[in-house]
């Protein structure tokens, strides 16, 4: 991604009941005041900077278990 741009990382999880979906960054925190997760569980990162580079993890959890997917961001 280009520094200063907006990045969208998608995460699709389905089930009945619907799983609880959370995003986190490995080895750090999500950018304070510059991220948002919408109703489709897409993570929006605004005005990305080199410090935002890294691996982001989407975790879906329900009574049946947990599933996770990762996305690597380069700025």
Automatic annotation (TrEMBL):
Source superkingdom: Eukaryota
Record-linked Gene3D superfamilies: Immunoglobulins
Localization of this protein: Cell membrane
Pfam families assigned to the protein according to its UniProt record, in alphabetical order: I-set (PF07679)
Keywords, in A-Z order: Cell membrane, Disulfide bond, Glycoprotein, Immunoglobulin domain, Membrane, Repeat
Every Ig-like domain range: 1-75
Region (Disordered): 1-21
Chief site of localization: membrane
Record GO terms (molecular function): cell-cell adhesion mediator activity
Name used for this protein in its record: ROBO1 protein
GO terms, biological process: axon guidance; dendrite self-avoidance; homophilic cell adhesion via plasma membrane adhesion molecules
GO cellular component, one term: axon
InterPro entries listed in its UniProt record: Ig-like_dom, Ig-like_dom_sf, Ig-like_fold, Ig_I-set, Ig_sub, Ig_sub2
